[in-house]
Specification:
Layout (H helix, E strand, L loop, with lengths): L19 E9 L5 H8 L8 E3 L18 E3 L3 E6 L4 E7 L10 H5 L4 E6 L8 H9 L3 E7 L9 H8 L7 E4 L4 H18 L1
Parallel strand pairs: 1-5, 1-6, 6-7, 7-8
Antiparallel strand pairs: 2-3, 4-5
Helix pairs in contact: 1-5
Length: 196
């Protein structure tokens, strides 16, 4: 039996750079695109704990309004994105189902902020997620994940529906697209810097 390969600092930090690691949560309700966003943007092979959904999950995971979902995150997702010579983001994706909420406390520890993914067709599913983020005292930005065929939503109406503070950033993104996901994370980082 061989030993696991060892990792050193060079696997996580660019050579010659002095970087600050920033822990960011990527959160949202079930089937909103968290795993997709981290996968689209991570500069390392992302850790994904996606598993095939079974019949046992049918009574627990509400697939109403969700098309073609066959897998679900059962622990967490993890990725990394270097945004400058000084800052590297470590992205932790949380599972969206209520039964995984107990994991959030550990994942929130040490996080500087959260990117909250929202499906505009299922806004009510976002309320418990935003409540948790606020409970843990994290600053956040809202990223409205644009799904194919979904109509564009008015930002003011979204803000009102989600009961957001005036300074909470709201952006539209496509979690499948690297540039769009990067823009959403950049909005969050700028918000965190403004609040610092």
């Amino acid at each position: 039996m061989g030993s696991a390969p060892s990792l050193d600092e060079r696997d996580y930090v660019r050579e010659g750079a002095t970087q600050t690691a920033v822990k960011i949560l990527v959160v949202g309700h079930f089937a909103v695109g968290k795993t997709t966003l981290i996968g689209s943007i991570s500069e390392i092979e992302p850790l994904s704990t996606e598993e095939t959904m079974t019949q046992a999950a049918e009574p627990v995971d509400d697939l109403k309004g969700v098309k073609g979902k066959t897998t679900t995150t059962v622990a967490m997702d993890f990725g990394r994105l270097t945004i400058s010579d000084r800052i590297v983001l470590y992205l932790f994706g949380t599972p969206g189902q209520q039964r995984f909420v107990q994991m959030w406390e550990d994942m929130a520890r040490g996080a500087l902020g959260a990117l909250v993914l929202v499906d505009p067709e299922r806004l009510a599913d976002s309320f418990p997620v935003i409540d948790l983020i606020e409970h843990y005292g994290l600053d956040y930005a809202i990223a409205v994940n644009h799904f194919d065929g979904a109509p564009a939503r008015d930002e003011r109406a979204l803000r009102e529906a989600l009961d957001l503070l005036d300074d909470t950033p709201v952006v539209t993104c496509d979690a499948r697209d690297e540039k769009s996901s990067a823009a959403a994370l950049t909005t969050l980082v700028r918000h965190l810097l403004d609040r610092a």
